[in-house]
Backbone:
């Protein structure tokens, strides 16, 4: 199985950005954690991160016919991007939406997710372990 992990704006700043909320784990730490889990699950994993909406759309489109699943943390674009929603609908790749914090307990605007309509599942508030849970979901727990 091939899974693409896509991270949106500011996620490259993990460990620096509001560590009291997002923790001290760096983006590099997150990627290594996911790589190890993928190896245990015998999953081929690749990563993409951008602070630019169009680049995220391009990554989703480029996954068509190449990836079996997407783990997506769209960051702030969760609450604003119809373009990401449309890209996910277009490619039809199984997708799990992930958020490090519990967006439902934060500001009102964070409770709205445009991408959720194209996702099989949302994992929110489980820290970076949410990415591992998403991989488990996509692989059927194997």
Residues:
């Amino acid at each position: 199985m091939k899974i693409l992990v896509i991270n949106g704006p500011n996620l490259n700043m993990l460990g620096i950005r509001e560590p009291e909320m997002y923790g001290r784990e760096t983006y590099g730490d997150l990627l290594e954690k996911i790589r190890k889990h993928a190896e245990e699950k015998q999953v081929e994993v690749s990563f993409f991160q951008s602070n630019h909406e169009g680049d995220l759309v391009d990554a989703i489109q480029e996954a068509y016919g190449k990836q079996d699943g997407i783990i997506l943390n769209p960051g702030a674009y969760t609450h604003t991007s119809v373009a990401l929603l449309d890209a996910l609908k277009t490619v039809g790749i199984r997708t799990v939406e992930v958020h490090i914090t519990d967006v439902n307990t934060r500001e009102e605007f964070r409770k709205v997710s445009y991408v959720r309509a194209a996702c099989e599942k949302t994992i929110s508030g489980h820290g970076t372990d949410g990415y591992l849970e998403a991989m488990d979901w996509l692989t059927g727990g194997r």
Notes: The chain has a mean pLDDT of 94. DSSP finds five helices and five strands in the chain. Strands lie at 2-7, 44-49, 69-73, 94-99, 121-124. The helical segments are 19-22, 27-41, 53-62, 82-91, 129-138.
